[in-house]
Amino acid sequence: MRLSSFADYAVVLMSAAARHCGAGAGLDPATNKYVKMNATTLSAETGIPLPTAQKLVSRLSAAGLLESSRGTGGGVRLSRPPAAITLADVVEAVEGPIAMTACTEMGAHDCSLEQDCRVRPHMNVANNAIRSALAAVTIASLAREVTPPPFVSGEVEKRVAEQTL
């Protein structure tokens, strides 16, 4: 199973939004709300093509993950704190319900095997595990700067030093 490029871009865009218009540093003391950005600045920061960033902002706003406003002082910001938005929320906003197969919901597809299917219950277990894993990761955690574990960094430097001797 693989996320589409569109879903991947949505995650990248939302983590950038969390850093600038959803993280504590982005709080406007006058309004006590997070500062706003726009699709152009999000595109420039993330490298996501502007038309794609605009589509994502529209889709994520429609899903209630971003608040948008037009005009002077307009832009977008997270609709709730970054710790309250999960990967599952973002993926479902742009891709629809997370489902490994079409048969995760009874009667929601055209399958002649549905009545006697022995696989469906097992696929639901797998599907629920994937959704739970995505729901366990918040945009706040993705917005944090990641540093490699010390042993990885030290090992790489050690191997490079050994090879140059």
UniProtKB/TrEMBL annotation:
Gene3D superfamilies: Winged helix-like DNA-binding domain superfamily/Winged helix DNA-binding domain. Pfam families: Rrf2 (PF02082). GO terms for cellular component: cytosol. GO terms for molecular function: DNA-binding transcription factor activity. It comes from Sphingobium fuliginis (strain ATCC 27551). This is Iron-sulfur cluster regulator IscR.
